[in-house]
């Protein structure tokens, strides 16, 4: 009886014992969780260790990229919060907030290459507010947070993007790139009043522009509407024009060409940044550091997948007076003189009817084209070899990517034919051109870099670039593969210009030849003496007034088409080469 009572008591006691469950958030649940409204960017020059509500998210091992908790590694796989061009943004998961939606965050700074010691850390509390999301920028010297509200509302039109300026630059910049700034297009035209003359420590209003590929620039303002061309800010990761032995003006700096996606909201954020330069005196091995204002492009609201919009523009290379293009019965731009383009126009995906009309409104050609999202086509009107008008649709690739015959940039590895990504390279400051022969009097045209064949970026099909892009082009013919010549632009001081071609810059002069294919090919062939050589520095610099004497580039980056147009026989305008730039 006593034994039975002891057994029952043991069962009762066992039933009262609760299993101890570790309060650990599985990494998978963090990755799949809803992010809080607190988003952070590392805009300082240091890698960081992070702790939120006493949860270590990084390894907290000096200058180590290994270790860390399972929770932390799901957010920071490298074991640290790195500093990077885009600030390596992340949002605090709601799972690690406290019951009041607060995040007690501690940041420790790791040492950097330009500094023998790291600054003190940051210890503060951030509040989650889903109705009013905010971005927090980690700054240094001394360390602190800057916070700005993050816009949740989409542009007024779904094909548009919203852009604003956040000017957090330092007042005493060593290169003088401080004070009010103005946002411009690549040719120096201000984007609008809302993003002009934006003062220090302030934020502009948003401005809407159609989605597309842009090379936005930031200049110090001059007056209420002008810009100071000698004080241009760089977009990271480019370096400013800094040389203690040979001071240079802050101009002629190329931004990246970016595709701003429909429905997206973006900020150009100016902050002080540390730059390290080799000493200008050769052989010393010394270097200097400078804290200079520069900017980043931050995506505030990530747009959804574009399943709707594409773009087209049109060019008149016909030579028979003004012509007009219509798409589905609606004018694409206005009447075009010979050699003139329309602006880019946005269309929805699907099949469209394109018509070419003469000055009297008579339909000369009608064709259909099926557009997919993000397509970009240029419609060219030109005369066929029999003199009748025709139109072609030339696709434009704005990515700056090119396919190389060198696998993995020569770094080794075996190409088993299952993955071609190791042969794809991207040039962020590209001069890229398609070449077209639209002259009915030239059966085959070849374009050259002055008197030599062009050498594309990387090693092409046969080690001599992509000859099909410029060689033996018949009227209206477009190579189906690798139709571009692409150069990595020469950038000024400190540029990460790692993909230079053998020329190192676009051609200075482009010449047109009449060539011939076949078993006994003639390439480049006979120089077309009546066709003026194309001076690239003139054709590919949109606004020479943006440059002081001696600062104009050999060409501005962008996506172009170089076309041989006109007539050699006197039946139309004299043959010449024209250049159309497709991005803004």
Brief account:
This protein is mostly beta strands. Helices cover 5% and strands 37% of the residues.
Structure, described:
The chain is mainly beta and 584 residues long. It has 4 domains: 122 residues, Immunoglobulin-like (Sandwich), CATH 2.60.40; 151 residues, no CATH class; 89 residues, Immunoglobulin-like; 179 residues, no CATH class. Helix content is 5%, strand content 37%. The protein has 4 helices and 37 strands. Strands 9, 11, 12, 16, 18 and 19 form a 6-stranded mixed β-sheet that branches. Strands 4-1-7-8 form a 4-stranded mixed β-sheet, with no helix packed on it. A 4-stranded antiparallel β-sheet has the order 3-2-5-6, with no helix packed on it. The N and C termini lie far apart (94 Å). 40% of the residues are buried.
Helix content: under 10%
Structural class: mainly beta
- Residue-averaged pLDDT: 86
End-to-end gap: 94 Å
Q: Quick one: biggest sheet?
A: 6 strands, mixed
- Ranges with pLDDT <50 over ≥5 residues? 6-13, 15-25, 459-464, 492-503
Count of separate DSSP helical elements? 4
Tally of discrete structural domains: 4
SSE blueprint:
Layout: H1 2-16, H2 27-31, E1 35-42, E2 48-52, E3 55-56, H3 70-75, E4 90-93, E5 102-109, E6 122-127, E7 134-139, E8 144-149, E9 160-167, E10 181-184, E11 202-203, E12 207-210, E13 212-214, E14 217-222, E15 226-232, E16 234-235, E17 258-260, E18 265-278, E19 287-301, E20 309-316, E21 324-327, E22 330-331, E23 345-348, E24 350-357, E25 363-371, E26 376-383, E27 389-395, E28 401-403, E29 424-426, E30 430-437, E31 445-449, E32 484-488, E33 509-516, E34 522-527, E35 534-535, H4 536-539, E36 558-565, E37 576-581
Parallel strand pairs: 1-7, 9-18, 16-19, 20-26, 30-36
Antiparallel strand pairs: 1-4, 2-3, 2-5, 5-6, 7-8, 9-11, 9-12, 10-14, 13-17, 14-15, 18-19, 20-23, 21-22, 21-24, 24-25, 26-27, 28-29, 30-32, 31-33, 33-34, 33-35, 36-37
Organism: Dinghuibacter silviterrae
Protein name: DUF4397 domain-containing protein
């Amino acid at each position: 009886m006593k034994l039975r009572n002891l057994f029952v008591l043991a069962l009762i006691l066992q039933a009262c014992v609760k299993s101890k469950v570790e309060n650990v958030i599985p990494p998978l649940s963090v990755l799949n969780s809803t992010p809080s409204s607190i988003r952070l960017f590392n805009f300082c020059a240091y890698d960081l260790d992070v702790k939120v509500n006493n949860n270590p998210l990084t390894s907290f091992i000096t200058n180590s990229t290994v270790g860390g908790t399972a929770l932390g590694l799901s957010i920071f796989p490298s074991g640290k919060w790195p500093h990077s061009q885009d600030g390596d943004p992340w949002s605090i998961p709601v799972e690690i907030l406290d019951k009041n939606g607060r995040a007690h965050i501690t940041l420790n700074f790791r040492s950097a290459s330009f500094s023998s010691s790291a600054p003190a850390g940051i210890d503060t509390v951030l509040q989650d507010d889903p109705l009013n999301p905010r971005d927090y920028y980690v700054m240094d010297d001394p360390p602190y947070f800057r916070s700005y509200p993050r816009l949740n509302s989409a542009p007024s039109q779904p094909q548009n993007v919203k852009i604003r300026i956040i000017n957090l630059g330092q007042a005493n910049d060593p290169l003088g790139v401080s004070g009010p700034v103005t946002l411009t297009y690549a040719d120096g035209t201000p984007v609008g009043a809302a993003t002009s003359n934006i003062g220090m420590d302030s934020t502009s209003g948003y401005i809407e522009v159609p989605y597309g590929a842009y090379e936005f620039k930031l200049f110090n303002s001059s007056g209420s509407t002008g810009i100071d061309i000698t004080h241009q800010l760089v977009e990271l990761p480019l370096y400013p024009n800094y040389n203690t032995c040979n001071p240079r003006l802050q101009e002629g700096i190329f931004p990246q060409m970016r595709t701003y996606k429909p429905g997206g909201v973006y900020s150009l954020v100016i902050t002080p940044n540390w730059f390290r330069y080799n000493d200008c005196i050769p052989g010393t091995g010394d270097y200097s550091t400078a804290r200079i204002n520069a900017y980043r492009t931050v995506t505030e609201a990530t747009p959804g997948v574009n399943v709707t919009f594409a773009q087209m523009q049109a060019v008149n290379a016909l030579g028979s007076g003004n012509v007009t293009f219509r798409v589905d019965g609606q004018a694409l731009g206005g009447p075009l003189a010979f050699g003139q383009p329309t602006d880019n126009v946005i269309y929805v995906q699907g099949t469209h009817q394109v018509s070419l009309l003469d000055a009297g409104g008579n339909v000369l050609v009608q064709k259909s084209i099926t557009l997919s999202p993000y397509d970009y086509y240029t419609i060219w009107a030109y005369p066929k070899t029999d003199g009748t008008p025709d139109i072609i649709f030339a696709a434009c690739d704005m990515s700056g990517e090119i396919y190389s015959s060198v696998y993995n940039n020569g770094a080794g590895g075996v190409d088993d034919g299952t993955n071609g990504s190791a042969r794809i390279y991207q040039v962020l400051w590209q001069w890229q051109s398609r070449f077209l022969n639209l002259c009915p009097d030239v059966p085959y045209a070849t374009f050259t870099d002055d008197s030599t064949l062009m050498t594309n970026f990387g090693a092409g099909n046969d080690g001599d670039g992509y000859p099909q892009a410029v060689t033996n082009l018949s009227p209206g013919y477009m190579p189906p593969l690798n139709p571009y010549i692409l150069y990595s632009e020469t950038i000024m001081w400190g540029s990460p210009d790692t993909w230079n071609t053998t020329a190192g810059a676009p051609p200075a002069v482009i010449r047109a030849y009449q060539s011939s294919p076949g078993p006994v090919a003639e390439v480049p062939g006979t120089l077309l003496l009546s066709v003026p050589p194309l001076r690239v520095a003139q054709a590919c610099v949109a606004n020479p007034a943006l440059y002081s004497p001696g600062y104009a580039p050999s060409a501005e980056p962008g996506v172009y088409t170089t076309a041989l147009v006109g007539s050699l026989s006197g039946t139309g305008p004299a043959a010449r080469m024209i250049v159309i730039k497709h991005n803004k």
